[in-house]
């Protein structure tokens, strides 16, 4: 008896050539729908599933392969006499090779005008059932879900008449990854329709974008995975125009820079080092913004990452070319800018659409044995309940400085203090165990520029010592969430020094 292969694919890349090679190897081909039509049009012999089952497709094709003549042929253990006897009694022929991929659910829900009915009709039932059955019985069945594996399978069939157990197991594992990802995508879509925020089970799927040379340190293995249908405003979706491969730390830092720069509607430049901003500048032009970001900390920017929210032209490229940077991210680089910047062979240049962010994404943080899931921190001053709590109101210039500081401090590791004027950061204190310590670092960096500047704190002052430290450095305006039982102490201290203090009612911890 000839061996049987069942071919039924949505992605028809190379399927006719596969069928031709299998027929040459004395396989009998079973197929359905468009796959069968393509094989027939190529002049190759092929049977329909209905020919095998003796039952027509019904319910608009929803039921065609869910039949004992198919699944019996897939699941029978060839080495067991009782299974062989039952196949013979029921006149079921074993199926030796299955090549199936699934209805294009992901591509369907990616369409901006997709309807729920269209999405549901593209949930495959028979395909996953055949794949899972074949993968479960990989001791005897070769199962293919990816056209990239056709060549390997055919080479082994031509060499020995069968695939190796090792290959069949690898292919089976790939099938289960594929069907798990498919179901995760469907589960996410359906959960979204219901509006459930904390379902009893949370499933995510990611696709390998690239292996990485190593992780945070050279002794750690790492890889970069991309979320299907994830935000276009993402380093995962960025187009790399030039430079060497991104590293694990590059990717983390690039993401941090993007999260900060998207806070700004006006031209803005952000320099990041070790996931904290070392300089942020805003201006009437992107070159002015970059010059301020550079001036904010010309030492730390060396070897850092710069994100700009406007295209880079030749004049700005010349400025960027003057120092060593790991990555430059922008919406666009002019040809002249590229000519300047690509002279540095290792400098990575990335572009992505700055108008394509996805505010619905979740923030995932792994802990050993678990996963924390939360919303993105999307609060801005437009969302906050701003209250001037001191006797003195901020001046117009101080308001601008406070707002800039608040945009930045939410992206600095806690405890965080940021000192700014109305155009740029002057000092950043990040990741300290106490708030006074963070303030001292930021104020020391600001130096004399702290006189008349604003100070932003990501969380409330537990006591008035931070206000006193700020006042002695010359700070004239402070923005902070408030909410401490000792808020009045901080307010009195600010009034004592003539500082204008604004409370937002919003905390921005970042661990």
Task: Tell me what the structure shows.
With 511 residues, the chain is α/β, with parallel strands linked by helices. It has helices spanning 15-24, 33-41, 49-53, 68-75, 81-90, 105-109, 116-121, 126-136, 150-160, 165-194, 248-261, 286-296, 314-321, 335-341, 396-409, 435-446, 465-473, 487-497; strands at residues 3-8, 27-31, 47-48, 97-100, 142-144, 207-212, 222-226, 239-242, 268-273, 276-282, 304-308, 325-330, 348-351, 362-367, 370-375, 387-388, 417-420, 425-429, 454-457, 477-480, 500-503.
Any chance you could write out the topology, listing elements then pairs?
Elements: E1 3-8, H1 15-24, E2 27-31, H2 33-41, E3 47-48, H3 49-53, H4 68-75, H5 81-90, E4 97-100, H6 105-109, H7 116-121, H8 126-136, E5 142-144, H9 150-160, H10 165-194, E6 207-212, E7 222-226, E8 239-242, H11 248-261, E9 268-273, E10 276-282, H12 286-296, E11 304-308, H13 314-321, E12 325-330, H14 335-341, E13 348-351, E14 362-367, E15 370-375, E16 387-388, H15 396-409, E17 417-420, E18 425-429, H16 435-446, E19 454-457, H17 465-473, E20 477-480, H18 487-497, E21 500-503
Parallel strand pairs: 1-2, 1-4, 2-3, 4-5, 11-12, 12-13, 19-20, 20-21
Antiparallel strand pairs: 6-7, 8-13, 9-10, 9-11, 14-15, 16-21, 17-18, 17-19
Helix pairs in contact: 4-8, 8-10, 13-14, 16-17, 17-18
């Amino acid at each position: 008896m000839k061996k049987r292969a069942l071919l039924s694919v949505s992605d028809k890349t190379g399927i006719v050539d596969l069928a031709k090679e299998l027929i040459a190897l004395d396989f009998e081909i079973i197929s359905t729908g468009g796959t069968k039509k393509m094989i027939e049009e190529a002049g190759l012999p092929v049977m329909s599933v209905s020919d095998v089952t003796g039952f027509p497709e019904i319910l608009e094709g929803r039921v065609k392969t869910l039949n004992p003549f198919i699944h019996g042929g897939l699941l029978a253990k060839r080495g067991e006499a009782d299974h062989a006897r039952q196949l013979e009694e029921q006149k079921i022929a074993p199926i030796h090779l299955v090549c199936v991929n699934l209805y294009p659910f992901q591509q369907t829900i990616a369409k901006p005008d997709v309807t729920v009915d269209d999405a549901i009709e593209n949930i495959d039932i028979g395909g996953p059932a055949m794949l899972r059955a074949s993968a479960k019985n990989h001791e005897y069945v070769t199962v293919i879900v990816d056209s990239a594996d056709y060549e390997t399978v055919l080479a082994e069939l031509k060499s020995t008449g069968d695939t190796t157990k090792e290959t069949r197991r690898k292919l089976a594992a790939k099938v289960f990854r594929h069907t798990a990802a498919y179901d995760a995508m469907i589960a996410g879509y359906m959960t979204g329709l219901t509006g459930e925020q904390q379902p009893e089970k949370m499933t995510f799927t990611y696709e390998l974008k690239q292996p990485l040379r190593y992780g945070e340190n050279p002794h750690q293995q790492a890889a970069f995975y991309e979320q299907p249908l994830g935000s276009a405003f993402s380093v995962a979706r960025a187009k790399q125009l030039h430079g060497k491969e991104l590293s694990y730390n590059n990717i983390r830092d690039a993401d941090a820079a993007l999260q900060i720069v998207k806070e700004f509607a006006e031209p803005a430049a952000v320099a990041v080092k070790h996931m904290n901003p070392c300089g942020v500048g805003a201006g009437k032009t992107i070159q002015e913004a970059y010059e301020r970001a550079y001036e904010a900390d010309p030492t730390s920017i060396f070897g850092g990452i710069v994100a700009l929210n406007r295209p880079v032209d030749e004049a700005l490229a010349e400025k960027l070319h003057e120092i060593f940077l790991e990555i430059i991210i922008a919406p666009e680089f002019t040809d002249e800018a590229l000519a300047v910047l690509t002279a540095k062979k290792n400098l990575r240049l990335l572009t992505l659409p700055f108008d394509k962010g996805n505010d619905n994404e979740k923030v995932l943080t792994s802990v050993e044995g678990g996963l924390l899931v939360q919303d993105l921190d999307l609060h801005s001053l437009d969302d906050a309940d701003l209250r001037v709590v001191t006797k003195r109101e901020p001046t117009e210039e101080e308001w601008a400085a406070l707002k800039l500081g608040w945009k930045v401090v939410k992206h600095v590791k806690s405890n965080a203090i940021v000192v700014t004027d109305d155009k740029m950061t002057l000092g950043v204190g990040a990741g300290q165990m106490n708030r006074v310590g963070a303030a001292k670092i930021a104020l020391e960096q600001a130096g004399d520029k702290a006189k008349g500047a604003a100070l932003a704190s990501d969380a409330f002052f537990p006591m008035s010592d931070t206000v006193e430290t700020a006042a002695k450095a010359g700070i004239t305006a402070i923005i902070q969430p408030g909410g401490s039982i000792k808020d009045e102490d901080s307010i009195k201290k600010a009034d004592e020094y003539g500082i204008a203090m604004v409370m937002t009612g919003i905390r921005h911890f970042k661990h």
